[in-house]
Amino acid sequence: MKKSTKGLIAGVAGVALLSGGATFALWGDQATVSGGSITNGDLAITSTGGQWADVSGGAAKNIDPVTFRTIPGDKLSLTQTATIVATGDNMAATLTATGGTPASELAAKGVTATYSVFKGSSTTPVTGGANVPLGNPANITIPKTGAAGDVYTIKINADFPTSTAGRQATAATLNLGSVTFAMNQVRA
Question: What's the pTM value of the predicted model, to 2 decimals?
């Protein structure tokens, strides 16, 4: 190869190296953005010991449902307080009370069992929470509460029919001692 060709190739290679040639750098960077934390809400119910009373004569007389023996025309009432916590920006809940004896069995024996829900110490049931058949959901919405919850009073009434014929239902046992309060979340 001629000296001039060699010189030309060396010159082109030198210019390529000086002008950056095939080498280059890509820039990159990153930043962290604080997305915050998300905290879940809560749905809980706690109840204190309730009290059964005989309200047949108008004035309430506390009873023990295990030892009390009903007769036709008796009216019994259970007063139960419950603290309900329903926290969350879109939180609301429905409430259902069920007894130990299914409502259908109570009805077959002529017993009418209902419950009513009151907020705090109010004597007026919350909207949709008056005389709901035991075992059916109350058509009420428990609104969002603070972290400590709100106190509700739940009253269950059991009315024994006066129209019992002969010895019908004598010595019958109805389990009214196991009452369950259940809540289900709904979107507010």
Answer: 0.71
